[in-house]
Amino acid sequence: MNIIETKIKGLLILEPKVFGDDRGWFMESFNQQSFENALRERNLDVPQFVQDNHSYSQKGVLRGLHYQLNPHAQGKLVRVVQGRAWDVAVDIRKDSETFGQWVGVELSGENHKQFWIPAGFAHGFVALEDNTQFLYKTTNYYSKACERSIVWNDKDIAIEWPVDASVELKLTDKDHFAPSLNQAKNNNDIF
């Protein structure tokens, strides 16, 4: 597995080894020992995964920016198994040197990349193709009471979503009317 460090400490892009021939391909999509070793080599906390989630989206569906507060904060290991998505993590740790900064990566069924997003980050994605299937391994269980969102187009964060004006974005009201990062910070609704 190839590990790519991003501009924000703790956010990692994982590229599993894919073995292919004329019959198709094979890859080890997750190996606890390899994952733990990669984190330990970088002096990062090693999580325990407790839940897997699977979403299905059409082109233009935008989900996020979501996170959960303590005691149900979640780290997420995410990947796309069909289609393509632009996946984003935003640092919402108020004492972090990279507070408010984001990292984005294209995940697809073809590139097999995975994105490790530890607790303390808001997460979102936009489906770039119809029939995009997204898998999440999470380090904590879902808790509605701890669930929070930051608006996807917060001008202070300035995420560069790779969609043009011809793509109609589809969002829930919760995501469309979510607070800004500064509002969440002022309400003590971040890490």
UniProtKB/TrEMBL annotation:
Gene Ontology MF term list: dTDP-4-dehydrorhamnose 3,5-epimerase activity
GO CC annotation, single: cytosol
UniProt organism field: Acinetobacter boissieri
One example of a Gene Ontology biological process annotation: dTDP-rhamnose biosynthetic process
Catalyzed reactions: dTDP-4-dehydro-6-deoxy-alpha-D-glucose = dTDP-4-dehydro-beta-L-rhamnose
Keyword presence, Isomerase: yes
Residues annotated as catalytic: H66, Y136
Pfam families: dTDP_sugar_isom
UniProt protein name: dTDP-4-dehydrorhamnose 3,5-epimerase
